[in-house]
Amino acid sequence: MKNHHPTALQAEGVDKFFFNPTKTQVLKKVSFEVKQGEFVSVVGKSGCGKSTLLYILSTMDTDYQGKLHMDGELITGKPRNYLAHLRNEKIGFVFQFHYLLNEFSVLENIMIPGLKLGKYSREELEYRAMEKLRIFEMEEHALKKANQLSGGQKQRVAIARALINDPLLIMGDEPTGNLDKKNSDIVFNKFKELAQEFKQTMLVVTHDQEFAEGTDRIIEMEDGRVIRQ
Ligand SMILES: Nc1ncnc2c1ncn2[C@@H]1O[C@H](COP(=O)(O)OP(=O)(O)OP(=O)(O)O)[C@@H](O)[C@H]1O
């Protein structure tokens, strides 16, 4: 365990309004917590507020009511630059589209969030990046350019990249959304392995029923509310 707080993330009565074109409440008193080591999925119909919630939980959107705690710390109301650092340090992101930089090597891509954080030297980061690649059986691809990989391989690299700073929490937004069944299974199995072998805390928004059913706990949303958790 990396720290002493058993709760990685806690949302308390989170409300979110959009004002364009008319005032609409898209999150309604959303409360839940994610304990350290938990692998949690967030499901619900299109438009129920999943992405909006993830954007808030990831500290990117600060325009909400309610309270958010990360790693035992109240982060609501903290300044933007503080949150940016916190995000780099504590959250690893895996999106539907991998956002790898095609002109850089696989190894360099994985190192990028580490270079941003500035906690480790370049040498250390190279070592760490190789270590992460090994988890995904991708070492032999380290020096390839990102665009020389298959879709499934790219997504594995994206997960390796999310791990570079040993984050408290991995947040995923439809990590298998753009993959075929075979590659979805590979990516899901990698998430599962991170949960089981490394006790990695993960919160993943997904439409993929099979993926959700394989997680420790499902948070289900409907019309801006959590209806099951
Ligand atoms: N910037 C915005 N301005 C106004 N309304 C928005 C904005 N972003 C999202 N919404 C609305 O908020 C609601 C929730 O959207 P959100 O993207 O969070 O849903 P979702 O559950 O992630 O959907 P999907 O599964 O399709 O990605 C929707 O009704 C959407 O139209």
TrEMBL record:
<dbReference type="InterPro" id="IPR027417">
    <property type="entry name" value="P-loop_NTPase"/>
</dbReference>
<dbReference type="InterPro" id="IPR003593">
    <property type="entry name" value="AAA+_ATPase"/>
</dbReference>
<dbReference type="InterPro" id="IPR003439">
    <property type="entry name" value="ABC_transporter-like_ATP-bd"/>
</dbReference>
<comment type="similarity">
    <text>Belongs to the ABC transporter superfamily.</text>
</comment>
<keyword id="KW-0067">ATP-binding</keyword>
<dbReference type="GO" id="GO:0005524">
    <property type="term" value="F:ATP binding"/>
</dbReference>
<protein>
    <submittedName>
        <fullName>ABC transporter ATP-binding protein</fullName>
    </submittedName>
</protein>
<keyword id="KW-0547">Nucleotide-binding</keyword>
<keyword id="KW-1278">Translocase</keyword>
<dbReference type="InterPro" id="IPR017911">
    <property type="entry name" value="MacB-like_ATP-bd"/>
</dbReference>
<feature type="domain" description="ABC transporter">
    <location>
        <begin position="9"/>
        <end position="229"/>
    </location>
</feature>
<keyword id="KW-0813">Transport</keyword>
<dbReference type="InterPro" id="IPR017871">
    <property type="entry name" value="ABC_transporter-like_CS"/>
</dbReference>
<dbReference type="Pfam" id="PF00005">
    <property type="entry name" value="ABC_tran"/>
</dbReference>
